Amino acid sequence: MIQSGMDIGRVITHRFSYKDFQQGFDVMRSGNSGKVDTRLERAMSLDESLRADLAAMEKAGTLKTFRHITGPMDTEVTMAEKSGRVLVLSSNNYLGLADHPEVIAAGKKALDDFGAGTASVRFICGTFSIHDQIEKALAKLSHTEAALTYVSCWTANTGLIPAIAGEADALVSDELNHASLIDGCRGAKAKRLVYKHSDMNDLHDKLHQVNGARRIFIVTDGVFSMEGDNRAPAGDCGARARTQRFRHPRRFARHGRDGEARPRHG
Q1: Between 222 and 264, the higher pLDDT residue
Q2: How many other β-carbons are positioned within 10 Å of the β-carbon of residue 57?
Q3: Where along the chain do its domains lie?
Q4: Which of 42, 54, 162, 258 gets the highest tally of CB atoms within 10 A of its CB?
Protein backbone atom coordinates (compact mmCIF):
# COMPACT_ATOMS: atom_id res chain seq x y z
CA MET A 1 0.00 0.00 0.00
CA ILE A 2 2.82 2.42 0.86
CA GLN A 3 4.80 1.78 -2.31
CA SER A 4 1.79 1.96 -4.60
CA GLY A 5 0.53 5.20 -3.10
CA MET A 6 -2.90 3.59 -2.55
CA ASP A 7 -5.52 5.85 -0.97
CA ILE A 8 -6.29 4.40 2.46
CA GLY A 9 -9.16 6.78 3.13
CA ARG A 10 -11.72 4.00 2.78
CA VAL A 11 -10.03 1.69 5.28
CA ILE A 12 -12.52 0.98 8.08
CA THR A 13 -11.27 0.14 11.55
CA HIS A 14 -12.62 0.24 15.10
CA ARG A 15 -9.12 0.55 16.59
CA PHE A 16 -7.69 3.70 14.96
CA SER A 17 -9.11 6.64 13.06
CA TYR A 18 -8.27 7.34 9.43
CA LYS A 19 -6.15 10.25 10.63
CA ASP A 20 -4.01 7.93 12.78
CA PHE A 21 -3.41 5.57 9.85
CA GLN A 22 -2.67 8.41 7.43
CA GLN A 23 -0.14 9.93 9.81
CA GLY A 24 1.55 6.59 10.33
CA PHE A 25 1.82 5.84 6.61
CA ASP A 26 3.12 9.37 5.92
CA VAL A 27 5.88 8.87 8.47
CA MET A 28 6.82 5.48 6.98
CA ARG A 29 6.95 6.96 3.48
CA SER A 30 9.39 9.55 4.75
CA GLY A 31 11.69 6.82 6.07
CA ASN A 32 11.59 8.20 9.61
CA SER A 33 9.67 5.24 11.02
CA GLY A 34 10.95 5.82 14.53
CA LYS A 35 8.27 8.44 14.95
CA VAL A 36 5.34 6.16 14.11
CA ASP A 37 2.59 6.30 16.72
CA THR A 38 3.36 3.51 19.22
CA ARG A 39 -0.27 2.33 19.17
CA LEU A 40 -0.12 1.80 15.41
CA GLU A 41 3.29 0.17 15.70
CA ARG A 42 2.03 -2.32 18.28
CA ALA A 43 -1.04 -3.14 16.20
CA MET A 44 1.06 -3.79 13.10
CA SER A 45 3.44 -5.93 15.13
CA LEU A 46 0.53 -8.02 16.45
CA ASP A 47 -0.84 -8.38 12.92
CA GLU A 48 2.50 -9.64 11.63
CA SER A 49 2.82 -12.03 14.58
CA LEU A 50 -0.65 -13.49 14.04
CA ARG A 51 -0.01 -13.90 10.32
CA ALA A 52 3.18 -15.81 11.14
CA ASP A 53 1.21 -18.08 13.48
CA LEU A 54 -1.39 -18.75 10.78
CA ALA A 55 1.33 -19.49 8.24
CA ALA A 56 2.96 -21.97 10.63
CA MET A 57 -0.39 -23.69 11.25
CA GLU A 58 -1.02 -23.93 7.51
CA LYS A 59 2.42 -25.43 6.94
CA ALA A 60 1.86 -27.98 9.72
CA GLY A 61 -1.56 -28.89 8.32
CA THR A 62 -3.41 -27.81 11.47
CA LEU A 63 -5.11 -24.69 10.11
CA LYS A 64 -8.88 -25.20 10.16
CA THR A 65 -11.11 -23.93 7.38
CA PHE A 66 -14.89 -23.98 7.06
CA ARG A 67 -16.73 -26.37 4.77
CA HIS A 68 -20.08 -25.04 3.65
CA ILE A 69 -23.01 -27.49 3.67
CA THR A 70 -25.77 -26.41 1.32
CA GLY A 71 -28.68 -28.46 2.69
CA PRO A 72 -29.93 -30.25 5.81
CA MET A 73 -27.59 -32.46 7.82
CA ASP A 74 -27.91 -36.14 6.94
CA THR A 75 -25.73 -39.21 6.39
CA GLU A 76 -24.83 -37.68 3.04
CA VAL A 77 -24.85 -33.94 2.29
CA THR A 78 -24.03 -31.52 -0.51
CA MET A 79 -21.17 -29.06 -0.03
CA ALA A 80 -20.18 -25.87 -1.80
CA GLU A 81 -16.57 -27.08 -2.10
CA LYS A 82 -17.42 -30.55 -3.49
CA SER A 83 -19.40 -31.96 -6.38
CA GLY A 84 -21.96 -34.68 -5.73
CA ARG A 85 -22.99 -36.16 -2.40
CA VAL A 86 -20.49 -36.28 0.48
CA LEU A 87 -20.54 -38.96 3.21
CA VAL A 88 -20.52 -37.41 6.71
CA LEU A 89 -18.57 -39.31 9.36
CA SER A 90 -17.99 -36.51 11.86
CA SER A 91 -21.37 -35.11 12.92
CA ASN A 92 -23.24 -35.63 16.20
CA ASN A 93 -26.47 -36.47 14.39
CA TYR A 94 -26.48 -39.96 15.90
CA LEU A 95 -30.23 -40.44 15.85
CA GLY A 96 -30.84 -38.79 12.49
CA LEU A 97 -33.07 -36.12 13.99
CA ALA A 98 -31.50 -33.11 12.26
CA ASP A 99 -33.71 -33.51 9.18
CA HIS A 100 -36.52 -35.59 10.66
CA PRO A 101 -39.90 -34.26 9.43
CA GLU A 102 -41.48 -34.29 12.90
CA VAL A 103 -38.57 -32.37 14.41
CA ILE A 104 -38.65 -29.82 11.60
CA ALA A 105 -42.40 -29.36 12.03
CA ALA A 106 -41.98 -28.90 15.79
CA GLY A 107 -39.28 -26.32 15.15
CA LYS A 108 -41.55 -24.35 12.83
CA LYS A 109 -44.36 -24.42 15.40
CA ALA A 110 -41.96 -23.23 18.11
CA LEU A 111 -40.96 -20.29 15.90
CA ASP A 112 -44.61 -19.37 15.48
CA ASP A 113 -45.36 -19.70 19.19
CA PHE A 114 -42.18 -18.31 20.78
CA GLY A 115 -40.32 -16.34 18.11
CA ALA A 116 -36.69 -16.64 17.02
CA GLY A 117 -34.70 -16.84 20.22
CA THR A 118 -34.86 -16.03 23.93
CA ALA A 119 -33.04 -12.65 23.71
CA SER A 120 -31.46 -13.35 27.10
CA VAL A 121 -29.68 -15.96 29.18
CA ARG A 122 -31.71 -18.56 31.05
CA PHE A 123 -31.59 -17.05 34.55
CA ILE A 124 -32.63 -13.53 33.48
CA CYS A 125 -35.60 -13.79 31.12
CA GLY A 126 -34.50 -16.50 28.68
CA THR A 127 -36.37 -19.51 30.06
CA PHE A 128 -39.54 -20.43 28.17
CA SER A 129 -42.23 -22.90 29.11
CA ILE A 130 -40.92 -25.30 26.44
CA HIS A 131 -37.62 -25.45 28.34
CA ASP A 132 -39.53 -26.65 31.36
CA GLN A 133 -41.40 -29.24 29.30
CA ILE A 134 -38.33 -30.83 27.72
CA GLU A 135 -36.31 -30.78 30.95
CA LYS A 136 -39.08 -32.54 32.86
CA ALA A 137 -39.28 -35.15 30.09
CA LEU A 138 -35.49 -35.65 30.15
CA ALA A 139 -35.49 -35.99 33.94
CA LYS A 140 -38.16 -38.67 33.71
CA LEU A 141 -36.19 -40.48 31.00
CA SER A 142 -33.00 -40.37 33.07
CA HIS A 143 -34.72 -41.18 36.39
CA THR A 144 -33.46 -38.00 38.05
CA GLU A 145 -35.14 -35.29 40.09
CA ALA A 146 -34.53 -32.61 37.46
CA ALA A 147 -32.61 -31.87 34.28
CA LEU A 148 -30.99 -28.82 32.70
CA THR A 149 -30.44 -28.48 28.95
CA TYR A 150 -27.43 -26.85 27.29
CA VAL A 151 -26.85 -25.99 23.65
CA SER A 152 -23.93 -28.45 23.48
CA CYS A 153 -21.97 -30.99 25.51
CA TRP A 154 -19.12 -28.46 25.57
CA THR A 155 -21.17 -25.80 27.34
CA ALA A 156 -22.52 -28.43 29.74
CA ASN A 157 -19.05 -29.53 30.80
CA THR A 158 -17.57 -26.03 31.03
CA GLY A 159 -20.64 -24.87 32.96
CA LEU A 160 -21.25 -27.75 35.35
CA ILE A 161 -17.76 -28.71 36.51
CA PRO A 162 -16.65 -25.25 37.74
CA ALA A 163 -20.06 -24.76 39.38
CA ILE A 164 -19.86 -27.80 41.67
CA ALA A 165 -16.08 -28.29 42.15
CA GLY A 166 -14.87 -25.61 44.54
CA GLU A 167 -11.55 -24.69 46.13
CA ALA A 168 -11.87 -27.39 48.80
CA ASP A 169 -12.52 -30.11 46.20
CA ALA A 170 -10.37 -32.15 43.80
CA LEU A 171 -10.73 -33.21 40.16
CA VAL A 172 -8.91 -36.33 38.95
CA SER A 173 -9.07 -36.46 35.16
CA ASP A 174 -8.09 -39.00 32.49
CA GLU A 175 -5.22 -37.66 30.35
CA LEU A 176 -7.10 -38.33 27.08
CA ASN A 177 -10.39 -36.73 28.07
CA HIS A 178 -12.34 -34.70 25.53
CA ALA A 179 -11.25 -31.04 25.33
CA SER A 180 -14.59 -29.91 26.80
CA LEU A 181 -13.92 -31.90 29.99
CA ILE A 182 -10.37 -30.52 30.15
CA ASP A 183 -11.62 -26.95 29.77
CA GLY A 184 -14.29 -27.59 32.40
CA CYS A 185 -11.60 -28.72 34.84
CA ARG A 186 -9.38 -25.76 34.01
CA GLY A 187 -12.21 -23.38 34.79
CA ALA A 188 -12.74 -24.85 38.27
CA LYS A 189 -10.97 -23.64 41.41
CA ALA A 190 -10.56 -27.22 42.62
CA LYS A 191 -7.20 -28.98 42.77
CA ARG A 192 -6.59 -30.81 39.48
CA LEU A 193 -4.69 -34.06 38.93
CA VAL A 194 -4.37 -36.08 35.71
CA TYR A 195 -4.03 -39.86 35.63
CA LYS A 196 -2.71 -42.05 32.80
CA HIS A 197 -5.32 -43.10 30.28
CA SER A 198 -7.59 -45.84 31.69
CA ASP A 199 -4.85 -46.79 34.17
CA MET A 200 -6.67 -47.78 37.36
CA ASN A 201 -3.42 -48.15 39.30
CA ASP A 202 -2.40 -44.58 38.47
CA LEU A 203 -5.92 -43.43 39.32
CA HIS A 204 -5.53 -45.18 42.68
CA ASP A 205 -2.34 -43.22 43.36
CA LYS A 206 -3.87 -39.89 42.33
CA LEU A 207 -6.93 -40.50 44.52
CA HIS A 208 -4.67 -41.06 47.51
CA GLN A 209 -2.95 -37.73 46.82
CA VAL A 210 -6.25 -35.85 47.18
CA ASN A 211 -7.85 -38.00 49.86
CA GLY A 212 -8.24 -35.05 52.23
CA ALA A 213 -10.37 -33.04 49.78
CA ARG A 214 -13.94 -32.16 50.69
CA ARG A 215 -15.25 -33.81 47.51
CA ILE A 216 -13.34 -35.83 44.91
CA PHE A 217 -14.54 -35.94 41.30
CA ILE A 218 -13.24 -38.54 38.84
CA VAL A 219 -13.57 -37.08 35.34
CA THR A 220 -13.58 -39.45 32.36
CA ASP A 221 -15.07 -39.97 28.93
CA GLY A 222 -17.45 -42.88 28.53
CA VAL A 223 -16.04 -43.55 25.06
CA PHE A 224 -12.71 -42.08 23.95
CA SER A 225 -13.86 -41.63 20.38
CA MET A 226 -11.17 -39.06 19.53
CA GLU A 227 -8.54 -41.79 19.96
CA GLY A 228 -10.56 -44.62 18.41
CA ASP A 229 -10.57 -46.17 21.87
CA ASN A 230 -13.85 -47.84 22.78
CA ARG A 231 -12.93 -48.63 26.33
CA ALA A 232 -15.41 -47.19 28.81
CA PRO A 233 -13.75 -47.32 32.25
CA ALA A 234 -16.23 -45.11 34.10
CA GLY A 235 -17.70 -48.08 35.95
CA ASP A 236 -14.23 -49.25 36.95
CA CYS A 237 -13.41 -45.75 38.21
CA GLY A 238 -16.47 -45.72 40.44
CA ALA A 239 -15.78 -49.21 41.73
CA ARG A 240 -12.18 -48.24 42.54
CA ALA A 241 -13.33 -45.16 44.43
CA ARG A 242 -15.91 -47.14 46.43
CA THR A 243 -13.59 -50.01 47.33
CA GLN A 244 -10.98 -47.54 48.55
CA ARG A 245 -13.70 -45.81 50.59
CA PHE A 246 -12.79 -42.34 49.45
CA ARG A 247 -14.88 -39.55 50.83
CA HIS A 248 -17.68 -38.41 48.50
CA PRO A 249 -16.39 -39.89 45.24
CA ARG A 250 -18.28 -38.70 42.14
CA ARG A 251 -17.89 -39.41 38.44
CA PHE A 252 -18.25 -37.29 35.35
CA ALA A 253 -18.64 -39.43 32.22
CA ARG A 254 -19.26 -37.58 28.96
CA HIS A 255 -21.25 -40.46 27.43
CA GLY A 256 -22.39 -42.19 30.60
CA ARG A 257 -21.16 -45.35 32.24
CA ASP A 258 -20.18 -48.19 29.89
CA GLY A 259 -20.18 -45.77 26.96
CA GLU A 260 -23.94 -45.39 26.79
CA ALA A 261 -25.35 -42.22 25.24
CA ARG A 262 -27.74 -41.90 28.20
CA PRO A 263 -26.04 -41.20 31.55
CA ARG A 264 -26.32 -43.43 34.57
CA HIS A 265 -25.74 -42.38 38.14
CA GLY A 266 -23.79 -44.15 40.85
Answers
A1: 222
A2: 12
A3: 1-63, 66-116, 153-259
A4: 162
